[in-house]
């Protein structure tokens, strides 16, 4: 069974490849716009191309039975149509529910008539890197909503789930909401980073407008959207699911992710 991993040079796509190979997959094709950056293992078939540029996808889907579809909104309908024409049977997409900007991906995949599995992922644990600079500079982190809570998921867990679904039966027509195993406030995340570093970090609540100004150099126009999104989790915290552990046998806690990535914050 030939499996295609799209956006395979990206963080999650590259990990999907590794998890597929570790699980015994022996016919993996990768679609990558910059294959030279990814150091793909021997035996992986590499096709150069980019989901966002349909003209580069000629032949990419030929002979593919199942594929992992990375979240590229602009061309998803054309990409799905090409996959269907080429004979792809099952698409596993990384997308989101109707409250997110990623719902059009899930909708396009469903409307293709192919078998589908949706992976709805919340905030990545890796997004904690937004605190790297202030933690390197001092023991104080300024944040607008320390009490806002969600259940961050490690990218590697998303990749493990994707590989599991691609390699096993019984997932067609399923939507899997993926979170980390614990719901944590932003203050609790800061405390766990401090514990991993052996430091006593504190979080100082700042006004919304100040938080936007702090984030604008890195996020630009998305800073306001990001801050308001955090604010929505004060009254509506994201609840953790057990889906990752149910499907793969384990799930990475935020503390485990931090312990493995402390060098980012030093």
In short:
The chain has helices spanning 11-22, 76-86, 103-111, 132-137, 155-167, 186-197, 208-219, 222-235, 243-248, 254-260; strands at residues 3-5, 28-32, 45-48, 66-69, 90-95, 115-121, 140-143, 149-150, 174-178, 184-185, 202-205.
Descriptive overview:
The chain is of the alpha/beta class. It is built from 10 helices and 11 strands. Strands 3-2-1-4-5-6-9 form a 7-stranded parallel sheet, with helices on both faces. A two-stranded parallel ribbon has the order 7-11. Strands 8-10 form a two-stranded antiparallel sheet. It starts with a strand and ends in a 6-residue tail after the last helix. The model has no long low-confidence stretch (mean pLDDT 96).
The CATH architecture assignment of the largest domain turns out to be: 3-Layer(aba) Sandwich
Biggest beta-sheet profile: 7 strands, parallel
Estimated structural class: alpha/beta
Count helical runs.
Answer: 10
CATH class descriptor name of the largest domain: Alpha Beta
Helix content: 25-40%
Which strand order does the major sheet show? 3-2-1-4-5-6-9
- CATH superfamily grouping of the largest domain: NAD(P)-binding Rossmann-like Domain
- How big a fraction of the residues is strand? 15-25%
Compute the number of structural domains: 2
What Rg is obtained from the alpha carbons, in whole angstroms? Answer: 19 Å
Principal-axes geometry comes out as elongated
End-to-end C-alpha gap: 44 Å
**Poorly predicted ranges:** none
Q: How many E-type strands? A: 11
Report mean pLDDT, rounded to a whole number: 96
From N to C, what is the helix and strand string?
Answer: EHEEEHEHEHEEHEEHEHHHH
At CATH level 3, the topology of the largest domain is Rossmann fold
């Amino acid at each position: 069974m030939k499996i295609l991993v799209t956006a395979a040079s990206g963080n999650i796509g590259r990990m999907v490849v590794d998890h597929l190979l570790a699980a015994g997959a022996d016919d993996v094709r990768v679609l990558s716009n910059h294959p030279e950056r990814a150091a793909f293992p021997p035996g992986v078939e590499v096709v150069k191309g980019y989901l966002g540029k349909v003209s580069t996808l000629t032949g990419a889907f030929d002979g593919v039975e199942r594929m992992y579809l990375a979240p590229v909104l602009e061309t998803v309908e054309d990409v799905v149509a090409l996959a269907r024409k080429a004979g792809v049977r099952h698409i596993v997409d990384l997308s989101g529910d109707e409250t997110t900007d990623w719902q059009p991906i899930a909708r396009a995949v469903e409307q293709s008539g192919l078998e589908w599995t949706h992976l709805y992922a919340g905030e990545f644990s890796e997004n904690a890197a937004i605190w790297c600079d202030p933690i390197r500079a001092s023991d104080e982190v300024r944040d607008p909503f320390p009490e806002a809570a969600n259940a961050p998921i490690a990218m590697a867990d998303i990749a493990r789930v994707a590989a599991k679904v691609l390699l096993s039966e019984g997932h067609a027509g399923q939507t899997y909401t993926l979170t980390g195993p614990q719901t944590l406030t932003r203050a609790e995340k800061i405390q766990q980073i401090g514990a991993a570093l052996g430091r006593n970090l504190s979080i100082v609540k700042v006004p919304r407008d100040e938080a936007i100004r702090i984030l604008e150099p890195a996020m630009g126009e998305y800073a306001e959207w990001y801050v308001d999104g955090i604010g929505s989790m004060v009254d509506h915290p994201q609840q953790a699911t057990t889906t990752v552990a149910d499907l793969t046998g384990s799930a990475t806690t935020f503390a485990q992710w931090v312990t493995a990535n402390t060098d980012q914050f030093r």
